[in-house]
Amino acid sequence: MYLSSACVKHEYIKDSVNELAQNGFKDIELSGGTKYYLGYEDDLLRLKEKYHLNYLVHNYFPPPPQDFILNLASLDDDVYHKSLEHCHRAIALSQKLGASKFCVHAGFFINIKTSEIGKNLSASELFNKDKAMGRFCEGYTEIKKAARGIDIYIENNVLSLSNMKTFQNQNPLMLTDYQGYLELKSLIEFKLLLDVAHLNVSANSLGIDYAEQLNNMLALSDYVHVSDNDGLHDQSQCFQENSKILNILKKQDLRGKTMTMETYGSLENIKQSQALLERTLRLN
Q: What long-range pairs does 170-174 form, CB within 8 A, spacing at least 24?
């Protein structure tokens, strides 16, 4: 089981990885939330050798020199080309670090401000869906060709009820549920990273059955992100014994799947959450 580097809060990735490694975490998924600086690649290689770490690279990592919203479906040429360039950098970094997978989030049918990521979105005109889907598929095909031994995954987005209401019950995001998976799968062949917490919120917003959605999508994925939430917001909570998500997950066969825990809290709470997951899901 991997732990997301975003679970601890530091300005620079070297400090996040160092703290996790010193607390016994050897499998670390490098994710967003830190600032760019010269020499971060050398620091990651040094820490990998010192602590015998295994890395995966995820979505908005490595941090770009200037923040932007990663969106391979954007019809804004500047955003689209920045997104493509970022994915190429992430693939190159994966190869340098010996990481076997890179995942990018499914696209958005709107331009999102950097200040809105993870928050309520402001109302704006949606892109032409067919054109945005086509652009995403073009970008994905390009980075997949460049992968050279790195498996490329697409992660399901999280649709909150408040954002659904803002867009008057139109879905502004790609791949939020099983139907969205089938829609994208009809256009391109791809591997799914299933974020079970994203799916919990999206299913609630769309008024569909979470357990059924999870059963359908988990069977299609060998790479899973896990955290807990209240079904209304993507909170990245640690797991408790009475967790709805955990109680549904324990009915699933997760053996052989790569898993990443994305939970915020103290390192002690994160360790307890990991132990509960491994015990309940019989991962050991």
A: 170/126, 171/109, 171/206, 172/108, 172/109, 172/110, 172/121, 172/126, 173/106, 173/107, 173/108, 173/109, 174/73, 174/106, 174/107, 174/108, 174/109, 174/132, 174/133, 174/136
Contacts of 238 (CB under 8 A, 6+ apart): 227, 228, 263, 264, 265, 269, 270, 272, 273
- In CATH terms, is domain 2-280 a member of 3.20.20.150? yes
Phi, psi of 58 (to 5 degrees): -130, 130
Q: How far apart are CA 278 and CA 255, in angstroms?
A: 11
SS3 78: helix
* pTM of the full structure: 0.95
Euclidean distance between CA atoms 229 and 129, whole angstroms = 29
**Residues 38-60 pLDDT 10s:** 999 999 999 999 999 999 999 99
Per-residue tokens: 159 = 């649709």
> What's the CA gap between 214 and 216, in Å, rounded?
5
| Calpha distance 239→276 (Å, rounded) | 7
Average pLDDT over residues 223-252: 94
* Ranges of each domain in the chain: 2-280
Count of H-run helices and E-run strands, the chain: 10, 8
CA distance to 27, 54, 224, 259, 266, per residue, from 23 (Å): 12, 15, 23, 19, 12
